[in-house]
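My hope is that you will study the record closing this message with an eye to the fold:
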Amino acid sequence: MSFWKKLFGIGKKPGTAAYRIEEAKKVHGQAVKYVTERHDGNEDIVGRGGSVSVVGDDLIVDTSGERLLVIPVKSTDISWLMSGNGVIISGPNKLEDGRMRTVTVHFVYYRK
């Protein structure tokens, strides 16, 4: 990120395809600690371990030795947790014929 973007907050507009691609690149290669999903007001752990990656035009979440989500990057909504150690990912899952899914991905903490 350039100095001017940091100083003035100049960047891509949220909701555009360019912004979604930029956010997906930020989470690419992150190691996953665990993934949770809300069901009836309860937050259930769906998987542990794994990674988040961008392959071609898809954002892929692999956890617990299986592929959990495959979402087209241009229709993915990524929101960072306030702590900065995870993201909320939502979008149409290709593995379930386009059913909308929202999961919270918590990253493994590595000092940078």
Observations:
- The beta strands are 32-39, 42-48, 51-55, 58-63, 66-72, 77-80, 86-93, 99-107.
- The chain has two helices and eight strands.
- The chain has a mean pLDDT of 89.
- Residues 17-27 form the longest helix (11 residues).
